[in-house]
């Protein structure tokens, strides 16, 4: 390996200890190796930062080990007024030789690879987007908790003999919540009270719903229902607080927000989650294929002896991947869109799961191009492609009918 850096530092990070190796020396000569260990407590990490500043080491590399690298990255990022290169590297790209592996050897191996310029850092967005990530990812966990709490309430009502949720499209809509509040207060419900609870079209099924509510709750059951329903309302209120904070942060990126919201199926919530994961500057990715691979929307390569075998997509970014799949599912229901038609054609050949991943990849490629060029989504640009595909399908149908002996005039 030919060295290209005179000073480099490798960090082997664990939960309780950080092993740092400083490799410093003139190019073409063996570097001087100095290895130090630090704990992951704040005072010890300050000592690590002071050592980096003292050694004037502007090139640092570390493994992307869970979340343990994040506080160290945050502490070293402002060093030298931001004029420092910090690489967070995938551990698979720099595995050491098995049988000769220790923490000190790992740190030295990282420093050696970094000094030779053989490491490629993972994509780390600016601090503004990392802070937005905290909110968008937390919102996702809050929504998951709300869904779990709704299922818990529904399960309790079902076990208590109240099966009205089968007759309401949304058991936690206005009508369902009115019924639950009435049961918390009185333990049972009459026809007159049910008529006051039901809203709009649900009143047409009042007799069926009344039969499903033919039961009563004891004092303990009413108290327990009050407890779990109050927790649901608290979670929903907390979600609104988080969403208000997201809205406040995402307005700082109004241009990118308007570009993403021009895609059918993407609202402010989805756009905020996407922007938080990939940022607005696409210069970190050479092309759309790189960002799709980083997101985990590209199939792997598995070829041996000239035979190409099935390969699953890589892990990538689960938050971005899941959001794009949700958007793709929304788009698939809008039959008038080009992307929707493209999804259904893929689904017929590959199945629903592969079609969803394919549409998510296509969406990410579109988003990459839109953010890079600053041009909004335009459905008209797909009109020519749609007409071409329709003509091809019509021509294939005519050929099949002619083979069967029917006389059909070719279209166009």
Explain this structure.
With 412 residues, this protein is α/β, with parallel strands linked by helices. The chain has 3 domains: 7-115, Nucleotidyltransferase, domain 5, CATH 3.30.420; 129-251, Helix Hairpins (Orthogonal Bundle); 254-301 and 312-388, no CATH class. 55% of the residues lie in helices and 9% in strands. The protein has 15 helices and 7 strands. The chain has helices spanning 42-55, 69-76, 103-115, 127-159, 174-186, 191-197, 206-212, 219-250, 254-261, 268-278, 288-295, 318-332, 338-350, 352-373, 383-403, and strands at residues 7-13, 17-24, 32-39, 59-63, 85-89, 303-304, 307-308. The strands form 2 sheets. The protein has a 5-stranded mixed β-sheet. The chain has a two-stranded antiparallel sheet with strand order 6-7. Strand 4 (59-63), helix 2 and strand 5 (85-89) form a beta-alpha-beta unit. Helix 12 (318-332) packs across helix 14. The radius of gyration is 29 Å and the shape is globular. It starts with 6 loop residues before the first strand and ends in a 9-residue tail after the last helix. The relative contact order is 0.07.
